[in-house]
UniProtKB/TrEMBL annotation:
<dbReference type="InterPro" id="IPR032698">
    <property type="entry name" value="SirB1_N"/>
</dbReference>
<protein>
    <recommendedName>
        <fullName>Protein SirB1 N-terminal domain-containing protein</fullName>
    </recommendedName>
</protein>
<comment type="similarity">
    <text>Belongs to the UPF0162 family.</text>
</comment>
<dbReference type="Pfam" id="PF13369">
    <property type="entry name" value="Transglut_core2"/>
</dbReference>
<keyword id="KW-0732">Signal</keyword>
<feature type="compositionally biased region" description="Low complexity">
    <location>
        <begin position="331"/>
        <end position="348"/>
    </location>
</feature>
<feature type="signal peptide">
    <location>
        <begin position="1"/>
        <end position="25"/>
    </location>
</feature>
<feature type="region of interest" description="Disordered">
    <location>
        <begin position="317"/>
        <end position="348"/>
    </location>
</feature>
<feature type="domain" description="Protein SirB1 N-terminal">
    <location>
        <begin position="70"/>
        <end position="220"/>
    </location>
</feature>
Amino acid sequence: MRSHSFQAFLLAIFVSGLSLTQAHAANSHAPMDPNLTTLHQLAEHPVDYGVVKVTLDHMVDPSVDVKATLHELDGWAEKVRVRLPPNADHYTTFMVLGSTFAVPGPWNDNRPFSYDLSDPFGKNIRNKLVSEYLKTRKGNCVSMPILLLILGQKLGLDMALATAPNHNLVMFRQDDGTWVNIEATSGTAFSNEEYQRQLYITPIAMHSGIYLRPLSPAEAVGAMGDELGDYYEKARKPKFQLDLTAYLLEINPKDTVAMIRRADAYYRLLDEKYFKKYPTPNLIPAADRADFQMLSKSNAELFQQAEALGGFYPVNADTSKKTDHGQKGVSCPSEESSATSSSVRPLA
């Protein structure tokens, strides 16, 4: 059963106007970042994926109406229920769920949901918000699988979030216990082999278990938390990024995305403290060289850890984020783009 008391706690914060900082003040042992306090609670309680996603969306964009969005999600779950035949099994329920969004009809006012070709990579962070997806009905490989996951949970389906290089998908457990990969951007089932071929997933990555496996609820919270990492990378100081990624790696020590975001935070500190001030490292004052070396080493070691697991990191970077001049950027493959060497590539 889900924790209705925790959902009520979150709604009390957002609806009454109580700030996360005020909520944090009651717990002297909580992390300094109030968003991390909430993230801890989201992962420690019975996980409600809808509450998790909408709460994270509100952290990124305070204009998100938490109560209204959660109500809208409940409404979509009900639209699926009324279309179900009596005594529908899990497979039938899943198929009706998919058609409710993909097939035009009165259930969606003849406005089916589809892939957003104008921003397929979700570079505009608003396009990753579930509230924005519900409004525009144009999604990406963040919003589309997570909406399926949220509604699947509400309908009693056994579903899990999974990741691939620069990509999210959902997995559906059939009645015989086997898991099926669901590519939400196209509404089709892909085998592991198809994902491995299209997204260049190496045998090392499959062996290490960083991709194409059903994430636990807590791990799914961590994967969804990457949305906050994306926001912090653009709008917060590196310390916030370091604190967040430390927690994400506590949830999932093999989270290579968190590793690279953490490496990026060390790079940002290097840039802020040294690269912008000193043309070459030998000009750094002797008293600061140990700090410079520590930050450089931390950055490089995180890339090495991700590489050892067979991880990918995004490309299309405007600037190096790796102390040995590797690239960093963003990519989100779709059925239209089918990952190519120009959109994603393995870590060097």
